[in-house]
Backbone:
């Protein structure tokens, strides 16, 4: 292993647990029910890559205590733990991440009810053996839209000022923390800058989220801005661990981001779908043998068609 890559494989303490590496598998929709035999096998395979943390894909909080219970989710967390990785799950406020919403259509009672469902989901995930839960507050989805001044034109306490636009996210985190305390980690995924808000705005949001109980910031830029440099302001400002998303499938860039203090952890996603042995080959300096993700969007096209994700270039997938 090249000396400059050693940091990728160094352990990192996350809460009460130690990650065996600095690599995170980020949440990626893959169209297999997460408690099915196929879904569990998929996540076991991702955990076996050598990653230190696997975040299960965005899952609607409306499914918890109905389709998803502590009993039937326990096998999923156990499969991930069995390969040496920590297990977290990303939580989405409603059923379908692709739906666009009219923010004014949500009553205050409905927003409070969503917070309550997040709290219940956190309790179930904790009881199922997960190490962390992550509200999805990024990528122009519902929680992110509440923060965006060009999307949020509410005139009540959930719109207008930055404090008000941050309120929904902060209340979700607060509800989860009230339910589970420090018994499970609370991550939060956020897009650091958009057309209508700045990194400075996001730093104010992050300060409020951390005060409400967020333990880890998962900084996921917009598709065209995939760089660890956008995670750096959060790493420099706050003491909580920061995950950098985007461009980290380049081992040199990932190791450089860690060494230079731009982040604490790096997320590598679709590179593992193309080649589950990606990290093993980096460790063994077999760079020419790595099967690269060609960013062809073939796997994403499968998602939009409702089909199970595989690497269409390589024909791979569990």
Residues:
């Amino acid at each position: 292993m090249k000396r400059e890559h050693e940091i990728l494989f160094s352990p990192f303490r996350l809460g009460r647990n130690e990650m065996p590496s600095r690599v995170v598998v980020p949440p990626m929709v893959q169209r297999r029910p997460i408690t099915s035999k196929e879904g569990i096998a998929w996540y076991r395979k991702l955990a076996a890559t050598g990653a230190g943390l696997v975040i299960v894909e965005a899952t609607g909080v409306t499914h918890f205590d109905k389709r998803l219970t502590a009993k039937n989710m326990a096998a999923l967390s156990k499969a991930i733990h069995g390969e040496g990785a920590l297990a977290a799950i990303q939580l989405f406020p409603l059923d379908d991440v692709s739906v666009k919403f009219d923010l004014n259509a949500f009553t205050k009672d409905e927003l409070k009810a969503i917070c309550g469902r997040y709290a219940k989901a956190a309790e179930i995930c904790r009881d199922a053996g997960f190490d962390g839960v992550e509200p999805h507050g990024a990528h122009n989805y519902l929680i992110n839209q509440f923060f965006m001044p060009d999307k949020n034109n509410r005139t009540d306490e959930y719109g207008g000022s930055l404090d008000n636009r941050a309120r929904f996210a902060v209340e979700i985190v607060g509800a989860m923390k009230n339910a589970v305390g420090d018994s499970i980690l609370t991550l939060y995924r956020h897009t650091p800058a958009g057309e209508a808000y700045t990194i400075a705005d996001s730093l104010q949001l992050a300060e409020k989220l951390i005060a409400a109980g967020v333990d880890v910031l998962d900084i996921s830029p917009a598709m065209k801005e995939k760089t660890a440099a956008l995670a750096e302001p959060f790493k420099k400002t706050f003491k909580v661990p920061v995950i950098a998303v985007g461009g980290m499938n380049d081992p040199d860039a990932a190791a450089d981001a860690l060494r230079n203090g731009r982040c604490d952890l790096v997320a590598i996603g679709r590179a593992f779908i193309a080649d589950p042995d990606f990290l093993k080959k980096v460790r063994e300096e077999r760079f020419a043998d790595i099967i690269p993700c060609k960013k062809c969007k073939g796997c994403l096209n499968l998602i939009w068609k409702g089909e199970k994700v595989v690497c269409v270039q390589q024909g791979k997938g569990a």
